[in-house]
Amino acid sequence: MTQRLQDVVGKLYRSVAGHARQVFALSRREAERLPRLPSVAVISVTAPGRAPANLDGFDHVLRLSFADVDFLKPGLSRKATENLTDAFTRRHADMIRSFVECLPDEITAVVVHCEGGYSRSCAIALGLHRLYGYNVEMEHLGRANSSILYVMTGDDCMVCSRPGRGQQVKLDNAQDVFNDAVASRTRPEKKFRKTLRRSAHRK
Question: Fewer CB within 10 Å of terminal CB in the chain, N or C?
């Protein structure tokens, strides 16, 4: 067991009902080794084409599959561009919000895992912190995928309790950026970057 996993397990055992929920970002391998505590819910993120993670024994599990691609990042690699159609979307964000909003009060912690535990899971954990006030270990979230965070919250730097009309507009802009990113696969990169700048001005 890695030191990181040991630290998280210790905190899961010490979670107390009635306090703000904790959210942790882990790798797939680490999440599969977690003790099956009834106070823990899991958001499982796997890459398209990969088998589901082994999470038998957890009562509350949301399984998602999407690629680790940041469509807000300029100069997308060829591989990232090819994966755009499998990127995180508004539908994924809605599923996450519905899942956590329906969790019983007995759930004191949410573990989010992706394949490596650095990008997708960190973005979702940070999004839950900003949307719902979940406690996070900010020092472990520095490599969060910015486009996932943007789609989840409507802005990569906003702090809010519930999404509202203004946030909906920003989410629509995020979808526009994503659509432009997909379209950019058939047009020059320079033109795509201009589209990104125009979208940023609309926020």
Answer: N
Q: How many CB atoms neighbour CB 164 within 10 A?
A: 10
> And the tokens for 73?
């990042």
- Residue 1's identity, in one-letter code, is M
Contact 180, 192 (CB under 8 A): yes
Nearest to 11, CA basis, from 23, 29, 27, 28: 23
Q: Is 196 helix (H, G, I), strand (E, B) or coil?
A: helix
Q: Could you tell me if 97 and 131 are in contact, meaning their C-beta atoms sit under 8 angstroms apart?
A: yes
Q: How far is CA 93 from the centre of its chain?
A: 8
> What does the pLDDT look like over 71-101, one tens digit per residue?
888 887 888 888 788 999 999 999 999 999 9
In tens, the pLDDT along 20-63 reads: 899 999 999 999 999 999 999 999 999 999 999 999 999 999 99
d(CA 24, CA 141): 9
- Joined together, the tokens standing for residue 10 give 């210790």
Give how far Cα 67 sits from Cα of 45, 62, 82, 114, Å: 9, 16, 10, 10
Q: State which amino acid sits at residue 177.
A: V
The order of strands in the sheet holding 109-114 is 22-27, 109-114, 40-46, 61-65
pTM for the full model? 0.77
